Amino acid sequence: MKTKIAIIGAGRIAYSLTSALLKEGYIVDTIISRKINSAKALAGKFGVKKYFDDKNKELAGSCFSSKVEIGFGRSVLLTQEELEEVKNRLGNNEKIPFEIELVRNAKDHLKFENYRMTSIEIQNAVEYLMSKIMTKYLTDEENKTDDEIDEKLKDFKEFRKILRKATFDAITSSKEFQKWDEKCAKLRHSVLHRGKQPDQNEAKEALDTGLSFLKILEKYK
Question: Which residues of the chain have pLDDT under 70?
Answer without folding.
Answer: 1-3, 53-95
